[in-house]
Queue: 4 jobs
Job 1
Amino acid sequence: MGTWGTGPFDNDTAADFADALDDAEPGAREALVRGVLVRTIDATGYLWEADEAVAAAALVAVQCPGGVALGTPCGPEASMPPFSADLRALADEALARIADDEDADGPASNWVDPADEKQWRATLARLRAVLYPPPSLALFEVHPQGN
């Protein structure tokens, strides 16, 4: 597999997934994204579709508040439909599964330079923060007296 960067579409497998999304009918694109996320969550052993799941999660994150454009020439050229809200939880769960994968041959092993693996893991963390930002807790409300 060719890997040239640490972004969600910076490898051959994710670029092929982008091509599959471009080739799919607009109404089938969400099903492709959902399928790869669910299969990654449900996988036992080696995470065969981890690269595609990271790419799919990035596409979901783009549509979330705080999501930013992918900024990569290797992502899908076709516009994605508005995704169902439940994909956020699936994308987050798939990314958690990938981040926790300790398989020596897993996606994190794609880089010889440890700094690249660290940057890749930071990308996963940023995506997860957009998919499920930490809740803001109001500790108490202040009401003016006398009004």
Note: The CA atoms of residues 50 and 98 lie 6 Å apart.
Job 2
Amino acid sequence: MPILDIHVLLQSWLDHGWLRDPQAVGLATFEAQELVAHGFYAVSDVDQLCLYEDERLFRRGKRPVHVLFKAFLQRGQLVANSLGLGDQVHLAGFLRAARQPLPAFRVLLEQGGRSGALLFDSGLVLQFSANLWGKPRHYYLTLVEGHVADAHVPDRDSDIDLRAASVGHVQALYDSRDPAELKRLARRGNAALRELAGLLA
């Protein structure tokens, strides 16, 4: 199977709010048996919300992109999936390559604008962070997480939420910014923030 471009994979999250095609990450299904058979490691109680994760390889141009793919199953049913990306994919590059117009979203930023998230109406979260060393020049996608909109889990009684990008968690981390405020912050903010504000204008 040819190695998929990471932007193609990310577009699927934008289109559907979550990764619907298991074949994109080398699986036949997102069922627990399939995940375990392909080397995924299970974290947490399998009777509650269980995280399965494993590394996968994609590309950006000719460059390899190693990601951590995560599937969240509750009582055996997929409720969310995500990618841990580190600092390998520019947020601006992905937004430029994405099909336009983008689905409706809000911008959330931490104080100082070194990290934040795009929170889409579908529940999709794109978390990003500026480069760690030197002046923040670009934002990198760090985590992409989508929630299965039509997941119907019987007797959902778990308070456990392993999802690092769950909507409540992200809203607690960052402040929501409207477009006018984002422009104002960008004028005196870092280069990464100016780049993002310019793309979203």
Note: Helices lie at 6-16, 32-37, 91-97, 167-173, 179-188, 191-200.
Job 3
Amino acid sequence: MDNSKKRSPWQIANATVLLLHLAFPVWLVAWMYTPAISSILLPVMMICGLLPGVCSKLVKKFQKGKGLLIASRVLAVFAIAAFYTPLVVLRSAKEVQLLYPLKRFLYTYGVYGDGRSGIYEALLPEQLPDACTGYRFRTQGSLIAQDYHASSYLTFYTDAATLDTYAAYYGSMDCERIQYAPAGETDEEPFPHLSWFCGQMKLDQTLPEHSEQMTLYWFDSYYPKGVLLDYDTGLVAVLT
């Protein structure tokens, strides 16, 4: 048997990865889901994926440089992992508080990029407060579909001091500030926008019935956004 024609484990792995990418175009989903950052990471992954082949030929030709070949393989693996990390993180880690800064970054900049990230970066807290329980952060990237919006849904419970800070911050923004009173104690339309907001956030629909100190900061646009602060329960809910 001609041993020179045997494929190395790396060549087999490389061919397998290539075939998987052709048969299951997950790379296309990742590229669509986080277009801003994946437009950079995709060509980097492709270039790094070709490097081991180039380095392998150079090693065979000059009979040296195995360290460079190993480094190129490690770089290729990291490039592939980096390309898929935004997709994996945005689709998972909903209740992992340590990953909040990363999820926030990948959502604001990975999906929207520098040019469109402003409102999303402004609405989502830069970091979670020290008093934070019941944390959940669900994020959606971009997909080509009718009436689809790359949204984020952040909920957690905190203390009154933090709520005061948030109330001052969101109250200073250009938005509609809606103060909710207990049922039957207001002449306004009962809970405007709240039903839609709670439905999108998957919050308890009975919340208005037992909450007496609740404020919704409503940002009306093509896709409405809002922040709900409830002093009765300590709830902070941010929809973008």
Note: The first helix runs from residue 9 to 23.
Job 4
Amino acid sequence: MPVDVRFHQLHPWALPPQQHQVNRQPSRTKARLLRENFRYTRAERQPEHCAPWVMGQELGWRVLSPADISFTPLDQIELDAVEDPEGAGRAANRTELWQREKSHLAVEKTSWLHLHQFKTARGWENMFLVNGAGTVEWRLGWGIDVPRGYFLLIVPSEQTPTGLEVPTGILSNTATSRMSQENGLSIAVRPTAPVAVRRDQEIARIVLLHADSLQARSVYPDVDAIEDIPEGESARA
């Protein structure tokens, strides 16, 4: 039975994810032309003719960039700056200090971190939040209703721009619900080199994941049987 997943555009600039559909017709036409008109050359073994490949391409949704952004790597130093935040910042020789839960993250002033502030009912907010280990949270401005019993798997895309890493992660429906009530889903990204990303450019993929998938266990009965065979005896004996 199909599962409905609802997306909500929380801000006018947001681009909700889109499902990708493989266009098989061009490859079929090419294969037919070669088959009917050429003696030797063929194009039958194309990705578009392979059902597993097509299903893999059409699985889930493609996450799109909502803005034109020029990323650069973001060096971050994690500090304990509760008692003396200014002193910690000076010690780290960084111009900005971001508090994230129990830690403070010291970074150099970087234009793209602040350039894309967006309007909310509470005022202007940053699209990017410093996250640690060179990553930032990218707030995308749309929400999603993940059904009970499912999780949301975030993975890099084949189209993710070179120089921008998307760490694989899993969000519960509780987490996605909370994000959807604020400024929308956020994904972690890590710039590793200067890279320009354009609005409507694909940056990641999201896939609905059933809770049973997280409880799957590995079983190797054949391996166990081989290990139980006394030394010097054949497995076929």
Note: The chain is about 20% helix and 30% strand.
